[in-house]
Amino acid sequence: MSIIDLFKEGKQKLEGKFLISIAAIIIISMISGVPTSIDPKLGVLTLILSAPLNLGMAVFFLNIVRGKEVRIEQIFDGFKNFIPSLVVTLLMAIVVGLGFVLLIIPGIILALGLSMVYYILADNPQMGAVEVMKASWEMMKSHKMDYFIYGLLCIVFCVLGILALIIGIFYVLPIVYAASALFYEKIREGQI
Question: CB-based contacts of 44: which residues, under 8 Å, 6+ apart?
Answer without folding.
Answer: none
